[in-house]
Amino acid sequence: MKEFLYLKNGLRSLQPSTRLAYTLFLVFSLLGYVVMIALAADRSGFTASSAATYYAGGGDAYAKTKGELLEVTHFHLFSMPLLLFVQGHLFLMTRWPRRVKLALLYAAFLGCALDLAAPWLTAYLSPDFAVAKIVARVLLGPSLLAFAVVPLGEMWAPAGTPRREEGPQDSLPGME
């Protein structure tokens, strides 16, 4: 952990073994996102109406049971915050402007919360809440992609790439 205190050249300053470990983690995360998109396409689709049918039932589809929703929610409540914590932490150490980094971090956690709530709201309150699943994906998708791609790029950027120093204009109130 001490090496994170002295990142003179950003993430590129990490020891090669640390960069390798994070690279493998981020590459596997990116592969997981590909599978996640395939699952979404196969199961709930990319529209509010297809998500409503998947969770609340309709046509040939049955409504998801409480047990099914509990199982998926349980797994995601443990895994998603951990993934966002690790990737968000790496992303916060990149050279991107602080305001953009914090906005994407907030978007990711809000997207995660909506992603967890949408199935329950859709199945038990109203199929109209399926739009929350679409909003969750819009918030979470670009954030997760940035959390993986930006640190990878900075860890393996050619030597001599200038580091942008952040100034007070890059912080949000209460986040100094």
Structure explained in plain terms:
Helix 3 (66-92) runs antiparallel to helix 4 (98-124), helix 3 runs parallel beside helix 5 (131-155) and helix 4 (98-124) packs antiparallel against helix 5. 65% of the residues lie in helices and 0% in strands. The protein is built from 5 helices and no strands. The protein has 176 residues and is mostly helical. It starts with 15 loop residues before the first helix and ends in a 21-residue tail after the last helix. Mean pLDDT is 89; it is low at 165-176. The chain has one domain (14-151).
List the helices and strands and how they pair.
Blueprint: H1 16-42, H2 48-56, H3 66-92, H4 98-124, H5 131-155
Helix pairs in contact: 1-5, 2-4, 2-5, 3-4, 3-5, 4-5
User: Helix and strand string, N-terminal first?
Assistant: HHHHH
Structure summary, number of beta strands: 0
In whole angstroms, how far apart are the ends?
A: 21 Å
Low-confidence parts lasting 5 or more residues at pLDDT below 50?
Answer: 165-176
Q: How many structural domains in the coordinates?
A: 1
Alpha-beta classification: mainly alpha
Principal-axis shape equals: elongated
Biggest beta sheet attributes: none
Instruction: Work out the helix count.
Output: 5
Helix content class: 55-70%
* Strand percentage: under 5%
The rounded Rg comes to: 19 Å
- Average of pLDDT: 89
